[in-house]
Amino acid sequence: MSAPAKDTDKRERIVKRVARELRDGFYVNLGIGMPTLIANYVPPGIEVILQSENGMLGIGPYPAEGQEDPDLINAGKETVSEMAGTSYFSSADSFAMILGGHIDLSVLGAMEVDESGSIANWMIPGKMVKGMGGAMDLVAAARRVIVAMEHTSRGGAPKVMKKCTLPLTGVGVVDTIVTELAYIRVTEEGLVLEEVAPGLTAEDVQRATHARLLVSAGLKSMES
Amino acid sequence: MLAFCLMISHNAGAMNKVVETAEEAIRDVFDGAVIMIGGFGLCGIPENLIRALVRKGTRNLTTISNNVGVDGVGNGLLLEAGQILHHIGSYVGENKLLEDMVLKGTIKLELVPQGTFSERIRAGGAGIPAFFTPTGVGTIVAEGKETREFDGRTYLMEHCLKADFAFVKAWKGDRMGNLVYRKTARNFNPMMATAAKVTIAEVEHLVEAGQLDGDHIHTPSVYVKRVVRGELYERRIERRTVRKAEAASR
């Protein structure tokens, strides 16, 4: 297996692949953590507007040192800057925008995803109490939902499951799963393996996956 | 025409909602009160009203706020002082103390998806007792709730949220209670201002009526009962992230 071993390499592969799903004119919500990095790889020549569910359209880069503004943060509570054309609005307007189906794409991380497109990413019973934040709303209503995550847990346990075992964030809501090993489409028939990381076979990906994968007739190498 | 004349013949009457101190602004907050507190993380929190409430020592509060601050800041101060009995919000991951209290069962925590949370508050202020949302269908959030199908999709019924008091923070406000927020410090403040019996606004800049452009007011004065200029703004940053000179191309 020549899949990338280091965490930073894995993440780079994932975020670069997801970035290729962006289209000119998209309004996109990027989840906290790894999905945030996708902003660094927007393909040249296209314009996407990043939405932050705390009430902003037009997230820009992190501010230059000394330019941090306590009134200007993203949903991860990080200081950010604004782009030309930025707008601000209340949380109610922000979620009306999301629930009304006006956000083209939501990318978020997950602890588990299953073959019916259900996702668990907010709670481990008895272990942590953090809250779902806006994730349940985003998966319920964004036009397209991509899960960007490492293929297995730190301990090597599969995260792409036949059925999620953790409390769910949404049922049957995920369209696409992108990991460092594969690009997987969620369909009525089940999970279709569309791309595998360079140097890997479909069997390699299946071994790291709990759900059964249907291999696409047009299986391709995953270009980053 | 008569009404119009009466409206402009103001003076220091009921339309002057300014109070001098945060203490005075929260004078009637009582033990067991339900209080909405604006802010997302530490951004746009009514920090002066929170500190005054800590000094007042009111107990058995139900707080409705997206977060519980962080340890030792914002709502975290109320938590540390043991003043919160029940909290309703969407994300509490920044607060270790709360996590411990919840796991030990010393506080009641109700986690609500953020869009449902904001809409429940909006509905509370708009006279809408309940509404249907696709958020949370099939999850533990849906347990015990009525569902209904519209156009082949299942939706959950969620009830509105109201409070005895709302503490909100605005950038500018006038003596009548018109408010303007700044950037992402707006967040939950505008809806909370509409959903409480008594809405108390703290502002960074207190201006005369007429100095705010009527086209740019976010919260119209009708919702606000008291306005106080905040004495001290720490405006704490939760996660200071900056761009390094060489990576300025994001």
Write a short abstract of this structure.
The complex is a heterodimer of chains A (224) and B (250). Chain A is α/β, with parallel strands linked by helices. Chain A contains four helices and 13 strands.
List keywords for this structure.
heterodimer; A: 224 residues; alpha/beta; ten-stranded mixed sheet; three-stranded mixed sheet; 4 helices; 13 strands; 16% helix; globular; B: 250 residues; nine-stranded mixed sheet; three-stranded antiparallel sheet; 7 helices; 12 strands; 22% helix
Account of the 3D structure:
By secondary structure, chain A is α/β, with parallel strands linked by helices. Chain A has four helices and 13 strands. Chain A has helices spanning 7-19, 91-99, 135-141, 202-207; strands at residues 27-30, 49-52, 56-59, 82-88, 105-108, 112-114, 119-120, 144-148, 160-161, 176-178, 182-187, 190-196, 213-221. In chain A, the strands form two sheets. In chain A, strands 4-3-2-1-5-8-10-11-12-13 form a ten-stranded mixed β-sheet. In chain A, a hairpin with a 4-residue loop joins strand 6 (112-114) and strand 7 (119-120). Chain A is globular. Chain B contains seven helices and twelve strands. In chain B, strand 2, helix 3 (47-56) and strand 3 form a beta-alpha-beta unit. The termini of chain B are far apart. Classes of the chains: A alpha/beta (224), B alpha/beta (250). Chains A and B meet through helix 2 and helix 3 of A and helix 5, helix 6 and helix 7 of B.
Estimate percent helicity of chain B: 10-25%
Total number of β-strand segments of chain B?
12
The SSE string of chain B, one letter per element, is: HEHEHEHEHEHEEEEEHEE
Oligomer: heterodimer
Average pLDDT taken over every residue of chain A? 95
SSE order of chain A in H/E notation?
HEEEEHEEEHEEEEEHE
Low-confidence stretches of chain A: none
Question: What best-fitting shape of chain B do the alpha-carbon axes yield?
Answer: globular
Which structural category fits the helices and strands of chain A?
Answer: alpha/beta
How does the major sheet of chain B shape up? Answer: 9 strands, mixed
H/I helix tally of chain A: 4
Largest interface: A-B, 56 and 62 residues
Q: Which structural class fits the helix and strand makeup of chain B? A: alpha/beta
Counting DSSP E segments of at least 2 residues, the number of strands of chain A comes to 13
Sheet of most strands of chain A: 10 strands, mixed
* Rg over C-alpha atoms of chain B, rounded to the nearest angstrom: 19 Å
Given the C-alpha coordinates, what overall shape of chain A results? globular
* Helix share bin of chain A: 10-25%
Rg of chain A (CA only): 17 Å
Low-confidence segments of chain B, given as residue ranges, are none
